[in-house]
């Protein structure tokens, strides 16, 4: 199978690139000048590719990676900075991000660089996280006056435990791939030039097995990992939306875009 068989997936204005290698679909985020920030258009295109993969019986596994020096450096702050609490609560603009976590086919995140905020949350929605030696992870939302809103507080706690998740979410500290592997966030680490080769090898191995059995195994593991996740995500989403009623959230995002320290006033 080749990309030529699915011309609708790749266009000049696309923010992702879709490639096919036998039974594996590779999705590459292609906004390198914005460190692959997750804007609305990119998420829509990603979801379209996931829909295509799920509807195509020839696809047995998916690999997601980023172009340039980032996997994904979080949500696009320029899209969020002027939103109000009413707007984010009514439209639930971050809900489309959940599509990745609901994909029935196995997804491997090949984290080649920065996985920050929404990028880290996206990686955690995948089933396996491979990282290059230079990869870095963080949930820095607190530094811009908000909090993780796409499952960050919930999945991170499930993966690495309460106290470590608390430290990372309350400080915004960035951690190396080596630390991420040590605390259970990352599955395995590879040299940068081996990352995609290893991710593809695992994807091809999985794709050769019985598709129904692969789907059942994924569902069974997720049943344990996400037994209380639905309620937790609901609480996190409500609290995240509430930050948009704060002056500090607007100040934090403006300071980020203006590349200056934020002057929080606790209101």
Give the structure's gist in a few sentences.
By secondary structure, the chain is α/β, with parallel strands linked by helices. It is 42% helix and 16% strand. The protein has one domain (3-196, 207-257): 2-enoyl-CoA Hydratase, Chain A, domain 1 (Alpha-Beta Complex).
Description:
There is one protein chain. With 267 residues, the chain is an alpha/beta fold. The protein has a single domain (3-196, 207-257), classed as 2-enoyl-CoA Hydratase, Chain A, domain 1. The protein is built from 11 helices and 10 strands. The protein has helices at 40-55, 77-80, 85-91, 118-125, 152-160, 162-171, 177-182, 195-207, 211-225, 229-242, 247-257; strands at 16-21, 24-29, 61-66, 70-72, 107-111, 114-116, 128-132, 136-138, 175-176, 188-190. The strands form 2 sheets. A 6-stranded mixed β-sheet has the order 1-2-3-5-7-10, with helices on both faces. Helix 1 links the parallel strand 2 (24-29) and strand 3 (61-66). It is globular. The protein starts with 15 loop residues before the first strand and ends in a 10-residue tail after the last helix. The mean pLDDT is 90.
């Amino acid at each position: 199978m080749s990309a030529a068989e699915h011309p609708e997936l790749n266009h000049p204005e696309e923010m992702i690139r879709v490639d096919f290698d036998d039974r594996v679909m590779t999705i590459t985020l292609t906004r390198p000048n914005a460190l692959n920030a997750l804007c609305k258009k990119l998420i829509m295109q990603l979801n379209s590719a996931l829909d295509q993969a799920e509807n195509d019986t020839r696809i047995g596994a998916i690999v997601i990676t980023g172009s340039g020096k980032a996997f994904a450096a979080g949500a696009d702050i320029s899209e969020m900075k002027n939103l109000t609490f009413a707007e984010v609560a009514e439209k639930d603009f971050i809900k489309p991000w959940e599509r990745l976590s609901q994909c029935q086919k196995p997804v491997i995140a090949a984290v080649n660089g920065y996985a920050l905020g929404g990028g880290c949350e996206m990686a955690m929605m995948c089933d396996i996280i491979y990282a290059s030696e230079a990869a870095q992870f963080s949930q820095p939302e607190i530094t811009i006056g908000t909090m993780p809103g796409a499952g960050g507080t919930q999945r991170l706690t499930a993966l690495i435990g309460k106290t470590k998740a608390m430290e990372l979410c309350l400080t915004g500290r960035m951690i190396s791939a080596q630390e991420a592997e040590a605390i259970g966030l990352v599955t395995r680490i590879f040299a940068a030039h081996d990352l995609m080769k290893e991710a593809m090898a695992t994807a091809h191995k999985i794709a050769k097995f019985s598709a129904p059995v692969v789907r059942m195994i994924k569902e069974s593991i997720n049943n344990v990992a996400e037994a209380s996740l639905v309620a937790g995500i609901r609480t996190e989403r409500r609290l995240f939306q509430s930050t948009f009623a704060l002056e500090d959230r607007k100040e934090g995002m403006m300071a980020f875009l203006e590349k200056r320290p934020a002057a929080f006033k606790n209101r």
